# Entry
Amino acid sequence: MTMTQRRTRRGTTLTANPSQGVRVHRSAALRRTAAGRYALPLTVQHNGQALGPTVLILTHAEAVQMRAELDRLLDESPAHPGGSDG
# Structure
């Protein structure tokens, strides 16, 4: 299940409904830029409508920090057989 954030009058809530709120999906494989940074292609959607592509650019230090955070979260989470959603 992929979580989505949507804004309400009282703040931001999370929903698993793919047709509500803003969603960001990974759209292609991670790659290196000409400057040696890491580029993660993404697609942004709002309420089920595609807004367009974007790219998250990370320095080496940012990529290392993200990897450490992902490793920590994956180690804390029970295995999810049958899917890659969290």
Observations:
- The two ends are 6 Å apart (CA to CA).
- Residues 60-76 form the longest helix (17 residues).
